[in-house]
Amino acid sequence: MSSETEDTMVAALLRERAGYVSRGMGDRVTQVDEQLALRGYKPDKEAAPVSRATPPKNRRQRSPETT
C-alpha cells in the first residue's frame, strides 16, 4: 500500500491505518477501510487486517505516586 496520494485525507487515513495494523487493532483497521472506501480508495491485497498472534510487549509500569 502506497501512502503517496494527492488527497490529504486519504493520506492521513493510510497513516492511521498503518498504526492500527502494527498494533493488531483489526476492528479499527476495518473502520478506517470503510472511510477509505467512501473516498474511493481501494487498499492492496497485502493491506488486509492482521490479527496479533502474540500479546503486546511489556509496557513500563508507572512508579507509585508518593506524596
3D architecture notes:
This protein is mainly alpha-helical and 67 residues long. The protein has 2 helices and no strands. The radius of gyration is 16 Å and the shape is elongated. The chain starts with 7 loop residues before the first helix and ends in a 29-residue tail after the last helix.
Note poorly predicted spans.
none
Backbone shape: elongated
How many distinct helices? Answer: 2
Major sheet attributes: none
Which bin fits the share of residues in helices? 40-55%
* Quantity of strands, as a count: 0
Oligomer: single chain
- Gyration radius from CA atoms, angstroms: 16 Å
Residue share in β-strands: under 5%
Structural class: mainly alpha
Order of helices and strands: HH
Task: Report how far the terminal alpha carbons are from each other.
Answer: 50 Å
Mean pLDDT: 78
How does the SSE layout of this entry go?
Blueprint: H1 8-22, H2 26-38
Helix pairs in contact: 1-2
Q: What's the short version?
A:
The protein is an all-alpha fold and 67 residues long. It contains two helices and no strands.
Which features characterize this protein?
single chain; about 40% helix; mainly alpha
